[in-house]
Amino acid sequence: FFHKSTTNVRQHINTAQRLVASPHPPLSSSQIHQATMASSVDAMDKVTLMSKFAALDEKTREARIKEVGKFLRANTPFKEKQVEGRRAAYSSGRRILDTLMASKYSLEAHPDGKVAFLPTRKEAQQFCQKHMIPDYFHRGFFEEVTAKRRDGTEKKKKNLMPYAVGYQHMVDDAEPFIWTYEPQGYSWLFGGLMLAGIGLCVLLPLWPAEMRIGVHYVSMSGLGLIGVYFGLQLLRLLIFVLVWICTGGNYHFWVLPNLNDEKLGVVDSFKPAYEMLDYYAVQQAADAKKKKKRKQSSRSADSGTDEPETPMTGDDEGDGDENTDDDANPSKPKAE
């Protein structure tokens, strides 16, 4: 008892000495009371939020978990890579938690939200650990392997592999998490319509005579349009070959050059009516451009000036795949 009393006295003396030696004035009793009450209220709010989610009935809680999983799958940035022979999407743990903390389920983003139940990032990480893994995503890692090119040289690449069950932990860093949940979309609707169409075709002999006659005329019209399309393709090719032979390969003449362009609409596919291309002039222009580029490169080599280096983009995922504008826009032609 004497030892404990002496220890308590020494602790109080040390605390008083630190307060006297500190440059800041000591807090008053009212300020200490207000700070203590604020921290206790904040802690009570966090406990109340988590207990509110835990107090929900099982059906409502499962619906809320499914809602959060769908939200994360639809709003989290992701990349795609081959995983054990199939194409799969993956995101880093940091991006998943960033999306969750910026959503309506976070108290930091929506303090007055009715459905907010995640007070801090740590609670969000624990929620993903308990309810998202492995039903919606599971943890993976990048395995560096060496592959041989056709010319015999070696190339290092990173393969995405899933972790074992014992290592499925939610981490707040750049480690990849492979998505196992895929939204169904309207594929079930298209499949049902296809089955209904097959069933109607099988029951064609039972249709009324008027419906069978109508289907016959529609089928003949469709076959006629297909025949016109293939006939037009054959005519275009025949005219092109005749002009190419008569001009010695210098002129390329196409009727309806944009007919097979999938990016254009129905009307724009028939514009212009024809196109005449002087292949010899185009080839000369390309050769002149190449010669000019060679001269510029030789001049820069003689003067000793180096070309400016292209800045490299960062890689948040750690997989070696850089996010460039050419990757974001596949239709954009890449520089040679």
Care to describe what's here?
- 50% of the residues lie in helices and 14% in strands.
- It contains 9 helices and 7 strands.
- The strands form 2 sheets. The protein has a 5-stranded antiparallel β-sheet. A two-stranded antiparallel ribbon has the order 6-7.
- Strand 1 and strand 2 form a beta hairpin.
Overall radius of gyration: 35 Å
Oligomer: single chain
Q: Roughly what is the average pLDDT, rounded to an integer?
A: 77
Query: How many E-type strands?
Result: 7
Cα(first) to Cα(last) distance is: 85 Å
Percent range for β-strand residues? 5-15%
Structural class: alpha+beta
Low-confidence stretches: 1-6, 31-45, 305-314, 322-336
The helical percent reads 40-55%
Largest sheet strand order: 1-2-5-3-4
Query: What is the global morphology?
Result: flat
Task: Provide a short characterization of the protein structure.
The protein is α+β, with helices and mostly antiparallel strands.
Question: How do the strands and helices of this protein lay out in sequence?
Answer:
Elements: H1 2-21, H2 29-54, H3 58-75, E1 79-83, E2 86-92, H4 93-101, H5 121-132, E3 137-148, E4 154-162, E5 176-179, H6 187-202, H7 209-246, E6 251-255, E7 274-278, H8 279-303, H9 325-328
Antiparallel strand pairs: 1-2, 2-5, 3-4, 3-5, 6-7
Give the tags.
14% strand, 5-stranded antiparallel β-sheet, 7 strands, disordered C terminus
